[in-house]
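Possible regression after last week's pipeline update?

I re-ran a chain I had predicted before the update to compare outputs. Posting the input and the new output here so someone can diff against the archived version. Not blocking, just want to make sure nothing changed silently.
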Amino acid sequence: MSDLESIKKLRLSTGAGFKDCSAALNESGGDLDKAVELLRVKGVAKASKKMSRQANEGVVALSGNENKTSILEVNCETDFVAKNDEFISFVKELSEINNSVDSNFDKLLKITMKNKKTVDENLVLMIAKMGEKITLGRSKTLKNNNSINYTYSHTIVKDNLSKLAVIVSLNNKEKFEKLDLFGKQLSMHIAASNPLAINSSDLKKEIIDKEQELINEELKNNGKSEEIAKKISLGKINKFKEENSLMTQNWVMEPKKKVNEILKELKINNLEIVEFCRVKIGE
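New output (post-update):
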């Protein structure tokens, strides 16, 4: 095999540049396997230098079916890379693997991909090839007994990849037209309204404490008596809970009604919103 043919083969298998491949072959004495390993090590070095940079772009991938659905965020530094065909292909395969391991990142990184390399190895190679920091972000798999999952994608990049994605799980065994319509609308509502929990009682204590802290700071020097300030504070925190809890949010499709009112109007026995997940790039 000629030097040029070796370089071409090495480029094809690793995706590295011409000069890097040529240097790796020289260093390995023409041994392709050793050259691949050298490029991988160099890729790790390149990747480590990039990990301190910000990666606020990327895509959110949805995979699975109505009974088991996964969401996966993969971040990069620029929208240019987010729309790159090779990056997209990588994320699409990655999202299917993520669904198969129920969003367990420890397992995910060890899985072998189609090119016979592990996810961890491919992530390093992708960083080296794209020249950007690439990280795995938020991920979740929804699979509840006797439930159906509904999804929504906003600002689609390609196929199942977008800039914002939602999964919501409704506890019902069978699909029918009225339920399907509500499920689709509910996932769109969640995308638009960004609730933090299903009910106010589910809101995390640290979120409430932080909001209360901000309210107290706002009321600190307003000249009101302590009693009036307490009433204003209580009203503000209750409004915050209402606006950030899915069940008490104004229904996007009919803002004069709350989500819990729409749920009752459906008159579907024992219908409940089990859980949801919303991921938006950059948030």
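Follow-up from reviewer: compared with the archived run. The chain has a mean pLDDT of 90. Marking as no regression found.
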